Amino acid sequence: MATPFWKYHALGNDYLVLDPERLDFPLQPLAIQRLCHRHFGVGSDGILLGPLPAPGADFGLRIFNPDGSEAEKSGNGLRIFARYLWDGGKVGGEPFYVQTLGGLVQAQVQNQGQQVQVAMGRVSFQSGLIPVTGADREVIQEPIQVQGQTFTFSAATIGNPHCVILVPEATPALAQTYGSALENHAFFPQRTNVQFVQVLSPERLRLEIWERGAGYTLASGSSSSAAAAVVHRLGLCAPAVTVEMPGGELAIRIAPDFAITMTGPVTGVAQGILASDIFAG
């Protein structure tokens, strides 16, 4: 049986969707790496495997990074998965629930599939939940050293770990130069996503992102959620903000308990059949 795939992007962050019932090979790390490779595979920032059975939810979803590791949660991935379900007639315009490794989320497709809103869950700054090494605490504005440079970071989780660094100017060079070292820093036993954040105004942030297991990334929904929560926790932005990234913009709403609602676009790219010799060589 040939395996079909669907490809979408959310602000330039692209994923392949695979239906587990139509998968004719084991989805192991080497296979994931090949599928995501820009030259030897289809090319993507990750793989979404679903829908899967999920007690207590309408659908289950597993999310894989291009290095073959499994991610707990992805805001862009969740929006893409919601659009895929809508395209396949599995959902309409009503809210529905998706179970991820990083927790239960609610999603709703809007504007005839062009936009998706996701209730991402509640952000926590507690070190034991993120996790960050050391005493149990809120990880807010602490020093971290990489490559001879000292930054001040805050850490957060929204089901996956984030290292948030405020800077006067967020540039691609910052993420590309320091992202890998921060991702793999000893402070983060499960590695971390990294965001460099520039506060443009109380209603607008600019992000540059290094994604755990993926590298430099044009946009990220969970990164936008975590970064906005940190900036709001520091009293530097409003509870409703626009997050600007190289790939485009997301709308983030932060509730008093730091529950996050994210809204943004999804674009279809392609669908096809994986060739029988894609894993050869």
Radius of gyration, taken over Cα atoms and rounded to an integer in Å? 18 Å
CATH architecture of the largest domain: Roll
CATH superfamily of the largest domain: Diaminopimelate Epimerase, Chain A, domain 1
* First-to-last CA distance: 21 Å
- Helix tally equals 4
Main β-sheet description: 18 strands, mixed
**Count of domains:** 2
Briefly, what CATH class of the largest domain?
A: Alpha Beta
Query: Outline, from the CA principal axes?
Result: globular
Number of strands: 18
- Which fold name is given in CATH as the topology of the largest domain? Diaminopimelate Epimerase, Chain A, domain 1
What is the H/E string? EEHEEEHEEEEEEHEEEHEEEE
- Low-pLDDT runs: none
User: How much of the polypeptide forms β-strand, as a percent range?
Assistant: 35-45%
Structural class: alpha+beta
What percent of residues adopt helix (DSSP H or I)?
A: 10-25%
Mean pLDDT: 97
Catalytic activity: (2S,6S)-2,6-diaminopimelate = meso-2,6-diaminopimelate
Pfam family, one: DAP_epimerase
InterPro entries: DAP_epimerase_DapF
Subcellular location: Cytoplasm
Summarize the structure.
This protein has helices spanning 29-36, 75-87, 172-183, 221-233, and strands at residues 4-10, 13-18, 47-52, 59-64, 70-71, 96-100, 103-110, 115-122, 142-146, 149-157, 161-166, 193-201, 204-211, 215-217, 240-245, 248-254, 259-265, 267-273. The chain has 281 residues and is of the alpha+beta class.
Describe this entry's structure for a reader.
The protein is of the alpha+beta class. The protein folds into 2 domains: 4-114 and 266-273, Diaminopimelate Epimerase, Chain A, domain 1, CATH 3.10.310.10; 122-263, Diaminopimelate Epimerase, Chain A, domain 1, CATH 3.10.310.10. It is 16% helix and 41% strand. The protein contains 4 helices and 18 strands. The protein has helices at 29-36, 75-87, 172-183, 221-233; strands spanning 4-10, 13-18, 47-52, 59-64, 70-71, 96-100, 103-110, 115-122, 142-146, 149-157, 161-166, 193-201, 204-211, 215-217, 240-245, 248-254, 259-265, 267-273. The mean pLDDT is 97.
